[in-house]
């Protein structure tokens, strides 16, 4: 019986594992990345939309944006519902140019160049994150305001 189950695993699981092998990709946190596919897209499915966002630009181009660090899967379907691609996507935490300040148990994140600017990062102290998120929202409203 054990041998029959092992053989069944080899027949069913190994081709499924091989299909996804080598098809991983990485997207940076708060970064956009263009992904092109050969066949026309119909639907995209993201395992954890809290980690990754995807927008269909045209029938062969996606824009992927890392929302939070972690790993999720991405499934691309044709307009007829056929699976075109399945892959794992790692959203990397970035860190390049970011400075994290720890004060006891609280944490704040800054993007530093000539000056340091607070940035929104998952895991930051709630009050700090709320303030930064509010500033980001205000900035988006200002950027979206019609010209006067």
UniProtKB/TrEMBL annotation:
Q: Where would one find the signal peptide in this protein?
A: 1-18
Keyword set, alphabetical order: Signal
Cross-referenced Pfam families, in alphabetical order? T2SS-T3SS_pil_N
Q: Which domain of life is it from?
A: Bacteria
Query: Matching InterPro entries, A to Z?
Result: T2SS-T3SS_pil_N (IPR032789)
In this protein, which residues make up the domain named Pilus formation protein N-terminal? 24-92
Protein's UniProt name: Pilus assembly protein N-terminal domain-containing protein
Q: Which organism is it from?
A: Halodurantibacterium flavum
